[in-house]
Amino acid sequence: LNGAVVVVDPNTGRILSIVNQKMALESAFTPCSTFKPVVGLAALKEGLITQDTQLRVGRRRHMNLTEALAVSNNRFFTRLGQMLGFRRLARYAREMGLGQKVGWNIPGESPGRFPQVPPKGVGVGILSSYGKDIAVTPLQLAAVISAIANGGTLHYLQYPRTSEEMAQFQPKPRRRLESLAQFFPQIKEGLAAAVLYGTAQSAYDPEEQIFG
Q1: How far apart are the first and last CA of the chain?
Q2: For the chain, what percent of residues have pLDDT higher than 70?
Q3: Do residues 154 and 97 touch, judged by C-beta distance below 8 A?
Q4: Helix pair angle (138-150, 36-45), 10° resolution
Q5: What pLDDT, in 10s, does the model give residues 72-116?
Q6: Are 111 and 101 spatial neighbours (Cβ–Cβ below 8 Å)?
Q7: CA–CA separation, 73 and 195 (whole Å)
Q8: Residues 80, 53 contacting (CB under 8 angstroms)
Q9: What is the pLDDT of residue 209?
Q10: Where are the alpha helices (DSSP H) in the chain?
């Protein structure tokens, strides 16, 4: 009742299944830490960090991007947001499709929201670490993570429902994120590490590599 699941083939943008379709399409939520891969991509592309850059996250503790993604470290991504500034971060978020509809002729889809200004009184750091003032649908998150999974193609998501629609299905690439392509493997290392030793360990499967 209180959640949704969207299953997508990341290489084609075909939606395979949706659980709780109304919530998946119409309801937009604060993305919290699921926004952090976008922040990491922006910082890598802007040359503010490399995968090995160590940022201070405590009195005596430093982390690189892989570890920060794995354990979802808020201080690390607050710092990245401050280094990027709101305008640069917003540009990458919109390039990834946030604040826009991602489906192809899917009735009832909400575009979600990406703010025009940083959160009032707290600045961009709380947006980059907690997703404050952003609203995304499960469908949008599926599109973003699919682009990361397939190496940089942002597909329109399509939901064929009849045998005829399935037979006629063709992928509809929305844009190729060429400028970001070289950085997706670095983000995926952090998502793999989340399953190996971070926040997504319950998804670990010894026979399949899972990214979380």
Answers
A1: 23
A2: 100
A3: yes
A4: 40
A5: 999 999 999 999 999 999 999 999 999 999 999 999 999 999 999
A6: yes
A7: 15
A8: no
A9: 96
A10: 21-26, 36-45, 65-71, 74-84, 86-95, 124-130, 138-150, 163-167, 184-197
Structure token pair of residue 42: 């922006």
Phi, psi at 29, each rounded to 5°: -130, 160
pLDDT at residue 2 in the model: 87
28 Cβ partners below 8 Å, 6+ apart? Answer: 110, 112, 113, 135, 136, 137, 140
Q: What residues contact 103, with CB distance under 8 A and at least 6 apart?
A: 25, 109, 139, 156, 157, 158, 159
The pair of structure tokens assigned to 22 is: 């109304």
Reference 97, options 163, 35, 44; nearest CA is 35
pLDDT digits (tens, 9 = 90+) for 152-199: 999 999 999 999 999 999 999 999 999 999 999 999 999 999 999 999
* pTM exceeds 0.90: yes
